[in-house]
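Researcher: I'm preparing a figure for a lab meeting and need a structural model of a single chain. I don't have an experimental structure, so a prediction will have to do for now. The sequence is pasted below. Please return the structure as tokens so I can convert it later.
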Amino acid sequence: MKIEIKLRIAAADGSICDEEILRFDKPHDQLEAIGLSLAEAKDLLGRLQEHIVAAQAATFAAERRCCQQCGRAQTSKGSTSIRFRTPFGDVPVSSPRLHRCACDAGQTRTFSPLTTLFSEHVAPELLYLETKWASLVSFGVTVDLLKDVLPIGSTLNAETVRNHLHRIAARAEAELGDERPSFIEGFPRMWAQLPIPEGPIVVGVDGGYVRARDGRQSHFEVMVGKSIPEDRKNRYFGLVQSHDDKPRRRLREVLREQGFQMNQDITFLTDGGDSVRNMAVAMSPCAEHVLDWFHITMRLTVLGQYAKGLAHHNPSEAEDTARELKRIKGYLWNGNRRQALPCIEWLIDDLDAVETDYPSMKAFRKAAGEFNTYIANNAGMIPNYAERRRYGERVSTAFVESTVNVVVGKRFSKLQQMRWSKEGAHLMLQTRTRALDGTLRRKFEQWYPGLASNNSAPQSETAMAA
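Model: Understood. Here is the structure written out token by token.
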């Protein structure tokens, strides 16, 4: 079976160009030969792309051959070649150079019309594909993936993909507004006049660790969060605290994109750390800050393990200690911090008075003191957890723990031997969070509005003619 594929291009001036794109033989009696092979499809797409891009560029240049002010034809100075990188191969484009008309007071005597069209030499859709997949898998795997399924140029490599991802992330960073000490806008009378808000929003923030490239430290901390509105899609966000100078602005922008307004209820669930807690301060007049119950029980569990060890040396003291820990846990679960704090202090005094040969007693006392400091510093964020649970409200950042695993663990740590700079990790977090929550494409469509129409199904010939 002989197959010929031709391309017909109808120019704006009414001229029609028919060109043969590909001709090949195709057997019809072998299963593996039915339809186009991947190699044939890539070859076909590459050739189509060359002809289509060349025709579009030629039409654009022809429309600007005459002076925009007086209409006189501008003489040619020759031409150069532009290499335009697309998802279907690198396309060489002939770029004519013209002498400026006498009525044009430009700074240069010659110019190239295509420089306004090809403001970038990489197609936005290719940038999107590189950024999306490099955010999800390693740079090298991204290159292999794109080369397997698309007629990508042979010069594409991991370093190029990384540079493109950093460029996209830096562009998004440049759009962030200035950091502010408070993002509460307006006053109570103004908030009362706002429309009825959507359902409440729950925001959880937690930290994770990434291997450092800098030899002075082995790891550095990254902060990851998840915003869960009742009536909209969830959003991720992440940053390197020691590198980012706009952490609160970043969180504010995520909330703004989710339609947040000043009279809307919002709950911040945190582990009580200073950096995490300060990130959500003065974000909204209707904000509630809740200490994560998981981090309280985690510390109580550690104290309980020490008490079990003490039981092998001082059974009666260990039994009293376990009973006291249970009572403290009950007070905290019911939000009774006024009674919980004295009980913790009594526990510390009792442990100081215990005479024992238990080898971990010093660590036990230290852990009890740290727990007392932790609860005292975060007492204002301890609600009635039992009541929240009865009403179906969140009391734990377990969903953020999984978010740290998804955002950080699977790309930065698990099975990944890469070491990261703080800037590189921060930029990767910006694109990875958007790739995971599905807003990366929307960001590209904001920069390149024409990409939005590329998502729609092709129109029929009749509709296009109309």
